[in-house]
Task: structure prediction
Amino acid sequence: MAGEEYGKIAREWYDYVNKGELDRAFALLHRDVEVLDVSQGQLMRGAEATRPWMQDWHTAFPDSSVEIQDLIETGDRLVVEFIARGTHSGPLAGPGGQIPPTGKRIELRGCDVFHFKDGKIYRRHMYYDGATMLRQLGLLSQERAA
Result:
């Protein structure tokens, strides 16, 4: 499969996620997918293991959207630079428990690194600054983040 096809799959992934069509997004995942949220130190293995994480995100930020800024393809790998936006209007799962809605908007830059196998997303490693998100939500002061 050519790199162009991988770009198409990634664009479909974000399109489905932006529309909240998670079942369609999950159909693009390899059954043995590995998803690593680097900021949270959370590794999920298997398509169904990633579902609660995605559902929690959409509960916390129901209007969330991801805008692709750049796409770099090489072999069976793809790097996507993005901006994620949304309003924190639902509970957000955190390491210390649920964070109640703040009503604040986030705008978060990040990168996803995708690896593909059998025409599906086999690995997705997500890189973003979780401290920036917490500052935007008013949960972390600038001084504490330094």
